[in-house]
Amino acid sequence: MNMFEHIRQLYQAELYDDLVQLFSVVLSLCESNEESELLTQPQRYQCLVYYGTAYYQQAEYRKAVDLTSEVDVKYKLYQCHMKLKETGEALLALESISTKQRTAKINLALARLYQQDGRDRSALTSYKEVLREHPLALMAVRELLSLGMRGTDVMSMIMGAVPQSTTCDWLVGLIRGFAFMSTKDYTSAITAFRALEAKAGLRDNIHVQDCLAESLFTSGQYTQAIEVFMRVRAIDPLHMHNMDLFAYLLSREKRSKELQSLSQQLMEVNENAVEPWVCMGYYSLNSVNKQNERLVRTVYCAQKAYSINPRCTQALLLKGAALQELNRMQDALLHFHEAVTREPDRFETYQGLVDCYVASHRLKDAVTLATRAFSHLGCSARTSTLLASVLAKSPHTVAKAKPYLEKAMKLDPSYMEAVYIMADILSGEQEYDRSIALIRQALQTQNDARLHEQLADCLAHVNQFQDALDHYHIALSLDPSSVRAREGMERVEKHNEMGLEGSYDVEVEDMGGSDNEPDFDGSDMESTWSETDFSQP
């Protein structure tokens, strides 16, 4: 066995440390004596490839870059530059490969870089090349649809390569679901994935369930999305994709124990992925630890997720929420605005920015953005309620909020946010009987702490103190941390003991807005992420 075969065996056995040590000696001998018989020139070149790969596996990317330079290993150059976050150099490495020599793997990498750079036409061409070589490359299918390619055109590229004898109704259903998602027709997407779910053998398919959960999430059906995400977790506890969305949903419901378990499990799977850090960030955001400590930890986790994948919108939303709680409003606004720019079709990005404007006492800006969301995303229970929630903040516009809330409750009677706001408006106008009737109707299908708190407040106003106490108790049983329920109970008990009238007036604060919209164009998001040192979690 000659020296080359020994080196090749070490490479095939993945003994990279041994390979590096052996070849470094052999290479020195070859360089000092060009006539050395240890390796032929072709063998020496092949060993350099092995050597570069070994450095890559050892995470010594700079050394790997310096070693590899030939066309057939430029993909390794691309990988190294990506690890070093040198996307420009990574793209140049791939583009230097001639079109005829580009494999599907190279075209896929090119397409993703083009897409990240906003070069959609080039990305479309590269994804098509992937699909021509591998017609069932489903990730390429999804990206082509997201870039605007018609579903029928994608289907024709695929079906021509599938044997006619093969039953492909499941494939057609899957692509239909993808197509509906790309056109933002989430109701039809949910129907398509539900139909797939009903097929024999696909009930517990992790991919179908994940797509269904994503569609439910994006359409605003959060409760159903949580149920499907939990099914995904039951099928595969190691599943990673979309778990950042699941963490957001758990955070909304303050399910801290589940967030802690989820983040720990995902961190054990792959700490170099975005999802574990977003999950950990939401767990910190919901923690009962010291406020500044938990918020700094949240910012660290969000920043870590962003450093792994700068395209992660959920990391921007997470960091924006933490910065808002830290009262760093301008920084929070930058992150929320960037999230809207990244994903202008996601409701949560608008909601984050609107809430931040309201917290910054910029009500006019909040109304402008909520109106924009209503126009861009269309009339739905969520967009109507978002606009109404801002209008309800001022006594000058509260009357305009009511029609939007009535529309929201008609579109989706189960959307409780509209009920909450309408009940508060009615209470503020001292229409307690109407508010009580509205809340009791909602409680027939929903049983949450906030409804019981609102009902108890109204009952106390109409002197039904015992019923009010009962509902405060129910609210606390559902949410032991509820300050509103605890304070309301104390007021009622004080009234019963001392015969004093408690004050239950709901004041609507007039939050003046600013006419000046901040100039976000050209903002340096990279510097925003790194302007504060969060190197210690």
Automatic annotation (TrEMBL):
<keyword id="KW-0802">TPR repeat</keyword>
<feature type="repeat" description="TPR">
    <location>
        <begin position="313"/>
        <end position="346"/>
    </location>
</feature>
<dbReference type="Pfam" id="PF13176">
    <property type="entry name" value="TPR_7"/>
</dbReference>
<dbReference type="InterPro" id="IPR011990">
    <property type="entry name" value="TPR-like_helical_dom_sf"/>
</dbReference>
<dbReference type="InterPro" id="IPR019734">
    <property type="entry name" value="TPR_rpt"/>
</dbReference>
<feature type="repeat" description="TPR">
    <location>
        <begin position="449"/>
        <end position="482"/>
    </location>
</feature>
<feature type="compositionally biased region" description="Acidic residues">
    <location>
        <begin position="504"/>
        <end position="524"/>
    </location>
</feature>
<feature type="region of interest" description="Disordered">
    <location>
        <begin position="487"/>
        <end position="537"/>
    </location>
</feature>
<protein>
    <recommendedName>
        <fullName>Anaphase-promoting complex subunit 7</fullName>
    </recommendedName>
</protein>
<feature type="compositionally biased region" description="Polar residues">
    <location>
        <begin position="525"/>
        <end position="537"/>
    </location>
</feature>
<feature type="compositionally biased region" description="Basic and acidic residues">
    <location>
        <begin position="487"/>
        <end position="498"/>
    </location>
</feature>
